[in-house]
Amino acid sequence: MIYSKEIAREIADSLLQIKAIKLNNANPFTWSSGWKAPIYCDNRKTLSYPVIRNRLKDLFTGLIREKYAPVDVVAGVATGGIALGALVAQELDLPFVYVRNKKKGHGLENQVEGEIFEGQRAVVVEDLVSTGNSSLNAVKALKQEGCRVMGMVAIFTYDFDYAREKFDREACELFALSDYQTAIERALENNYILKKDMDSLAAWRRDPGKWGQNG
């Protein structure tokens, strides 16, 4: 769910301004999944902008204190959640770990990197939630280590219905600072896109696989 509508608009504006969010109906982007999409979101760009980076850190810190305290450890999802997660952990004076998408094939074969203990209450930091698969893979890895995962915070979510269903099944509460619908609304209001683009953008959100086949 969205933490705050006002904050969602603010963060969408910031992501559009620095081109962390790019929208293009005419020349769609190809995701790693093979989907064709009129949007590409690269929130790692926020790390290059200190004002935005610090704002995200402060928002996450406040959100975690409000919704999840007490917390024992902050976990970042590799790779996008590592840097910001570490900043949040530093601000909260908490230990930090990060979670790989799979176990290493050598050495200690860790999936969770850092010191973690059974029974710890963890909050997961993610930069982007799309299908939910990689995000919830991190949640499952932490649970396998005996952690109690309190929830997840993310910069941005596409808010797909099936992703929400996956989070519900895993009993993991997600709070995102902004989302797809807010982003396209703010893009229209700030003249990044035209009104005629909105129908296609909305259609993609409802069924991205079908949109790609027809696009």
Describe the protein's architecture and organization.
By secondary structure, the chain is an alpha/beta fold. The chain has one domain (5-203): Rossmann fold. The chain contains eight helices and ten strands. The strands form three sheets. A six-stranded mixed beta sheet has the order 7-6-5-8-9-10, with helices on both faces. The chain has a two-stranded antiparallel sheet with strand order 1-4. Strand 5, helix 3 and strand 6 (96-99) form a beta-alpha-beta unit. The longest helix is centred in the first third of the chain and has 18 residues, at 50-67. It is globular.
Break the fold down into its secondary structure elements and pairings.
Elements: H1 5-17, E1 21-23, E2 29-30, E3 36-37, E4 39-41, H2 50-67, E5 73-77, H3 82-92, E6 96-99, E7 112-113, E8 121-129, H4 133-144, E9 148-157, H5 161-169, E10 174-179, H6 180-189, H7 198-206, H8 208-214
Parallel strand pairs: 5-6, 5-8, 8-9, 9-10
Antiparallel strand pairs: 1-4, 2-3, 6-7
How many structural domains?
1
Shape: globular
Helix and strand pattern: HEEEEHEHEEEHEHEHHH
Q: What is the CATH third-level topology name?
A: Rossmann fold
Query: How are the strands of the biggest sheet laid out side by side?
Result: 7-6-5-8-9-10
Query: Architecture, CATH level 2?
Result: 3-Layer(aba) Sandwich
Unreliable stretches, pLDDT < 50, 5 or more residues? none
Report the sheet with the most strands, covering strand number, pairing sense and barrel closure: 6 strands, mixed
| Total number of beta strands | 10
Mean pLDDT metric: 93
